[in-house]
Amino acid sequence: MMTEGLAQAERKMRTAGVAENAITVFRHYYAQLADGLTGTIPEASISPVTDLPRLADLRHATGRTTSTGTTSTGAESALARTVVIKLNGGLGTSMGMQRAKSLLPVREGRTFLDLTVAQVLAARAEHGVRLPLVMMDSFATSADTMAELASSPAVRTAGLPLEFVQNQEPKLRADDLTPVEWPAAPDLEWCPPGHGDLYTALAGSGALRTLLDAGFRYAAVSNVDNLGATPSAVLADWFAGTGAPFAMEVCERTAADRKGGHLAVRTADGRLVLREKAQTGAEDEAAFGDITRHRYFNTNNLWLDLAQLAEALEARDGVLGLPLICNRKHVDPTDASSPEVFQLETAMGSAIEVFEGSAAIVVPRSRFLPVKTTSDLLVLRSDVYRVDGDGTLDRVSPATPLVTLAAGPYKLIADFEQHFPHGAPSLREAGSLTVEGDWTFGPQVVVRGDVVLPATDKPMTVPGGTVLDGTVVNGTALTGGAGALDDTRR
User: Model-level pTM greater than 0.85?
Assistant: First the structure.
């Protein structure tokens, strides 16, 4: 049945027009699944990462000082041979969106895509380089994204693609490993192969060869919702100087990062590896979350040597061999009674273990500003950050507050917008904001220190002009507030 299941899956992929190299990669991981491989990385097989270079310590003997640091100049500078690749495959379905997440307004009506384009154009002008922008879209985001970019013709680079499209693969029934059928919603029969598909899609689309033929050697890869991952001439120079085939930007872990993938050293061969939560056995969960032992997490800001990537793909018949991540889900995520399926995925950061000589560099938290939830979005929309003319976000508060919004009232973007009809409260003086209940914020609300808005048995309102200072209990601001908070049903 397993052999027949693979044959069915391959036929389904060819009928849908999936690239042949993507089918080859899928076959590789199907065989691992059939053999019972889980992709787990035992704690006993790794050791902590110790010394790493830091962006803050980089110095260049020659160059000029710019807003992004001291860089080398001339046509042969590393940035002149770099392309920016942004992962743009998500619809933001976890926030209730039906369009590309990159089209969500972030600040002053400008979207993630608007700010990304502004960052690239500003870097081109500052450094006098072509710096192409290429999107890795999915079938779900391609049309919307390309339509939006049509209004920014300046971002195109002559002779180069503006996008390549991520592959898709069939979800497999957990009981017999055959492609699942779901006539009620056929689109749910398919899933993306994870962002590790970057390398397969880049090659299969022809974009990799096109970039190399046009003289581009390096790629700076990041998620489109991470506006901190701005083009950096300093990092480009550093990466080119290492001669490494692959590099990862990492940040130091905090208590808030216990669940994120961390960097480690594989003791068998001394290579850097990335271990994700899904690759950790129950017996190793405590070690996984130990931020004093495993100090660095992956920002998903990566640097690729495109020439060395092409050589590796050719030598391995298109299969880099990234570690398998096998996710068990329901074919319809909203219906627990629908059949259980396996989704075979890989993480693009796990390529760090594939290449001998891979590198990592510690970067400041300012290069890691992802928006995965509406809590993250509220912080970016607040006065904690200032948007500069070049599209970069500069933090103007002493620290970034921790915001936690209750899932019920705030998880979906439409509900979130209704609860903040006048925009985000001032968070510049906040340490944390925890909203446990259904609260709607009036205009010019200020949060200071650590504030908790508790759960209530009815919707409540924070009146305009309220200063929330300290803990709020039973709807009353205990210190520094504007008095009793309003019951919206009164």
Answer: yes
What is the distance between the alpha carbons of residues 368 and 435, in angstroms, rounded to a whole number?
24
Compute the distance between CA of residue 5 and CA of residue 177 in angstroms, rounded to an integer. 6
Burial 277-289 (b: 16+ CB within 10 A, else e): ebbbeeebeebbb
Which H or E element spans position 473? Answer: strand 472-473
Task: Count the neighbouring beta carbons within 10 Å of the beta carbon of residue 42.
Answer: 13
Domain annotation for the chain: domains and CATH numbers: 2-367 (3.90.550.10), 374-487 (2.160.10.10)
CA 63, 65, 70, 72 dihedral sign is negative
In this prediction, the residues of the chain whose per-residue pLDDT falls under 70 are 1-2, 38, 59-76, 471-490
Cα–Cα distance for residue pair 66/450, rounded to 1 Å = 37
DSSP letter string, 190-258: EE---GGGHHHHHHHTSHHHHHHHTT--EEEEEETT-TT----HHHHHHHHHHT-SEEEEEEE--GGGT
Strands in 340-345's sheet, in edge-to-edge order, are 172-173, 340-345, 325-330
Residue 272 near residue 33 (C-beta atoms within 8 A): no
Please choose, from the candidates 249, 230, 255, the residue with its C-alpha nearest in 3D space to the C-alpha of residue 349. Answer: 249
Spell out the residues 6+ positions from residue 126 whose beta carbon is closer than 8 angstroms to its own. Answer: 66, 67, 68
Q: What residues are annotated to the active site?
A: 372
Antiparallel, parallel or unpaired: β 393-395 and 385-387: antiparallel
* Cα 422 from Cα 68, distance rounded (Å): 34
Instruction: With CA atoms as reference, report the closest residue to 233 among 74, 91, 110, 115.
Output: 74
Alpha-carbon 224 to chain mean position? 7
Residues 6+ apart with CB under 8 A from 76: none
pLDDT at 66: 40
SS3 state at 433: strand
Q: In this structure, are residues 348 and 195 in contact, taking their beta carbons and an 8 Å threshold? A: yes
Q: How many residues does the chain have?
A: 490
Strands 426-435 and 402-405: parallel
Task: Using the Cα atoms of residue 218, residue 222, residue 227 and residue 229 in order, give the sign of their dihedral.
Answer: negative
> How far does Cα 270 stand from its chain's mean position?
27
Could you give the angle at the alpha carbon of 479 between the alpha carbons of 476 and 484, nearest 5°?
A: 25
Contacts of 145 (CB under 8 A, 6+ apart): 88, 100, 102, 103, 113, 135, 137, 163
pLDDT at residue 68 in the model: 45
